[in-house]
């Protein structure tokens, strides 16, 4: 998917084939074996990955995900998207991504810590505050980042908070980092309602995925005045045409660890959720959710891609013909996380920390610039928002590589 999207943009930008290879191929791809002691005394080996896409604009930046289906190809695609995302938003980073093929539900907390520390140890030759900075992604959190920072710091002999972002605030994390992606999605949705002449206080919203990003997006949209009528997590979905009471759902979620079974809404399948009539549809779960099979059935005005790669290239062809749907592409829509990760890195390097008001204000300023530039290019050259966002990201990396030249 990532390569298909890149090739379409490269054709439009008339990039030569030798230049394409430089832009497309990852700088480094690592696969590591991760043996750990299980609590029962046995030893199990897990497979870990890290892909650094390019180092032209600065160190690489990207999340670390723990999921049983993680593969090197998936990690490489996510690293490439991260490159275009950082360039689009003007951050001095190349893209990276990491992952371990593991089902964390089958590990104890101690086993998870051993696995994290072992992965960090294996990565030490390839990471550093000026080389590659990790962050949380699917299946990882503040605690995992704290273990990584501690492992790297023990190796160096002194505390290095800037080696990861998404840490606990009392270990050098930034206020507003956890909420950053969801806040950014909601901000851009609000901007998009202005663009397509919708009143957000009269809009209905559907959110697929009620993890960190999806839940913060839902709460933020509700603050703007939108009514959330359907949402889901890995165990099931909910629908209530009158709106779901998010406060009551939060209490239910804390008790049951899932939204499934919430008594004040009807159950709904993932397929039904994606095709529910609404003003705002937010896929905030896994990639490849909107495909050629359901793209024609989607009934929304704004499609806000909070997940990475939720729409396949085949679905894009169908959606491009549906002018009534305004798409906020993933590399723009979910960029709030990496923007505030950048802020955290900057604060760690300076040992000077900002208030949450400053963080949110700076976040919205960068998002506003990126949104305006993407929308302007989309209208000027009559291309989709995805093509416009990717064109801006790819062009900036291409220009930087040209200016730096080829060594030696």
TrEMBL record:
- Any idea which residues are catalytic in this one? 97 (proton donor)
Biological-process GO terms, alphabetical = L-glutamate catabolic process
Site (Important for catalysis) at 137
User: Residue limits of the Glutamate/phenylalanine/leucine/valine/L-tryptophan dehydrogenase C-terminal domain?
Assistant: 174-405
Q: Which InterPro entries does this chain map to?
A: Aminoacid_DH-like_N_sf, Glu/Leu/Phe/Val/Trp_DH, Glu/Leu/Phe/Val/Trp_DH_C, Glu/Leu/Phe/Val/Trp_DH_dimer, Glu_DH, NAD(P)-bd_dom_sf, NAD_bind_Glu_DH
Quote one Gene Ontology molecular function term. Answer: glutamate dehydrogenase (NAD+) activity
Binding site residues for NAD(+)? 181, 212
One Pfam family hit? ELFV_dehydrog
Sorted alphabetically, which keywords does the UniProt record give?
NAD, Nucleotide-binding, Oxidoreductase
Residues noted as binding substrate in the record, renumbered to the chain = 61, 85, 341
Report the superkingdom from the record. Answer: Bacteria
Protein family: Belongs to the Glu/Leu/Phe/Val dehydrogenases family.
The protein's name: Glutamate dehydrogenase
Protein species of origin: Pedosphaera parvula (strain Ellin514)
